[in-house]
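Exercise: predict the structure of this protein bound to nicotinamide-adenine-dinucleotide.
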Amino acid sequence: MEHSADGLEQLSVVRRCFESGKTRSLSWRKSQLKALQRLLVEREKDIFRVLKEDLGKHQAEAFRDEVGFLGKSVDYHIANLDKWVTPTKISIPLLGFPSAAQLVQEPLGVVLVLSTWNFPIALSLEPLIGAISAGNAVVIKPSELAPSSSAFLATNIPLFMDNEAVKVIQGGPDMGEKLLGHKWDKIFFTGSPRVGRVVMTAAAKHLTPVTLELGGKSPCIVDSISGSGDREVMVKRIIGGKWGSCNGQACLAIDYLLVEEKFTTTLVDLLKTTMKTLVSEPEHISKIVNKHHFERLCSLLDDPLVASSVVHGGSINHEKMYIEPTILIDPPLNSEIMVREIFGPLLPIITLKKIEDSIDFIKGRPKPLVIYAFTNNEALKKKIVEETSSGGITFNDTLIQYVCDTIPFGGIGQSGFGKYHGKFSFDTFSHGKPVVRRSFLTEFSFRYPPWDEDKLQL
Ligand code: NAD
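Solution:
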């Protein structure tokens, strides 16, 4: 094996494997997707265990957000791969007659996947599914902040998948930096905007394309929906979108609510009542990932003006690193909680004179990964779609967009760029190469010099 100054000799194995052409074959791709399917089925209990250890995820949540989500995704790729790899016809204008053209999908090469800790299995394996489907070789570096999940991947991927083409390398930022020092054909990064900049800077050296799946403050506009049944469903969906998926530590979690002043008391009362039944037991919500993040979240409440805005919850158990699901009304807009991504169980409500003011509020801030809005007002929906910019918009629900394979997932501006899931994952890891086939049948002399007056007449 070749010697590498940083000890990453295994990377040359992956590179040689890709160059051998092995990963391009459709049968190899399918066999690897099926191997991943088997891993998800045969190691399901282990996945539940590691997600419990790292994040206190309940098995039901772990199935919905990781195991089940991935199983559905890999099935979708297996079912559609024949179609996706088939070259598509490109129509040619008369100018090119007679000729034919096709768009042929080719793999990018050796791909680096850097993932994060909040969905440590899903955010490592969902990009892997796309990269394998598209015929690439892959190196995954999971997050050091979810050590059991990271070790699970490092142990089990080699047991199920092709060892030369798929590697898991464990480690933290130092290992991330070492890996970024190498040349890749694509870097797929999920994490913070801060490290996103580090990734893009490293990628620039080799002109490597990147996808950045970042986060930010995703707002949720809450209009005064009428009808008690609809309101009940709305409140459950808001609670699910804040505390129901990794306890607010999700890129797609609601960061804060935008509500009309006159509807605020009614909404808070509804939230409090429903939170009692859904999220009052710590064992039903994920834990805060570690001490650093626990202290970061506690410090958001240190500001006296923020602390005095708490209207529900707010109790903290330092020993168990538990923060009660907490609602705040109108914390100062320049306080940390309203400037940084919260990524935890604190939910500020910002009150507005009119619900339409939410549009200017959102436009005055970095582009979020998603805008949620609960409303039956079609004029307001139209305004939100036409006047704001975000990775996506979901009306009258939260998180659901993430699990639909037909919906592209990704950010814009500060929330990242590039998209994946379903066919969009295949495209993210492919180069659509136009192939033009001309015939020798017709030829026009005006294409070539020498140029003269006759040619100018054409
Ligand atoms: P992070 O950016 O600190 O870490 C992400 C990955 O990068 C980890 O594997 C880490 O080891 C590695 N890393 C850290 N520093 C590095 C460096 N200097 N060089 C190379 N690699 C380095 O991520 P985080 O802050 O722990 O994750 C939370 C963020 O991720 C939030 O902003 C959240 O919104 C975002 N997120 C986005 C998505 C999405 O799909 N858009 C999903 C989950 C989380």
